[in-house]
Amino acid sequence: MPNLPPHQLTPLRVVVLLCALLLLGLSPNSISATTPDPATLTQQVIELTNAERSTLGLPPLKGQVNLQDAAMWITADNAAHNTLSHIDSLGRRITQRYPDFGYTNYNWIGENLTMGASTAEGALTSWINSPGHYETMLKADFCEMGAGYAYNANSAYKHYWAQSFGCRFGVHPVVINREAATTSTTTVALYIYGTGWAQEVRLSNDGVNWSAWEPYQPERNWTLAPGSGTRTVYVELRNGSTVRSAQDSIDLRDAPYRVFLPLVQR
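== CAP domain-containing protein ==
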């Protein structure tokens, strides 16, 4: 089935990709019957999306829980009904579905769907190879995203995927290491949204002890608190007397030990 072109709702500045069936050349018999872990696969989709955007100099997207819930819903709904549609079984397009999942006050939203790919890499490839979907993935106006995956062994193509995109008025996310789940070093790369609004920025590892206010810039390195476990970076942006806040977290894992053995020659 050919791809349908993206549809734009100009009054709401909403980008909507209409239903497109991307089969990747796979037959139902070629797809693994093993049920993968949705949390792992959706995190991979987010990281792969940001890696692709990075190759073109675009900022990374922040994982956002309401968009994640909306993406998981549409994939489960499509899997349950053996279809691929941006209109769910309750008759909702993303302009209604996203607010129903709590994503409101947006200025841009969009969505990509595909089915049949058994891996996150395969799903990304299908979107990259479809001009309309690729354009949506690379849209510079987006700053947040969610990803969805569902598996139904009794459906024709078994694997269902979604990317949910958006950006909200007055929300300036911070993204650690292109939204990677883990890091083995305390030095991380931050992308802080706020270009065109923010004048100053300050940061903290605990939300209590802050760095000094400094001129805003979108990209900078930061040092996490030492140790291991979840580490959160808190950011405050200031324009005059107005202050807006953001935060992001990453799992800091101990770097692997290296054992050096002396070389003994006999």
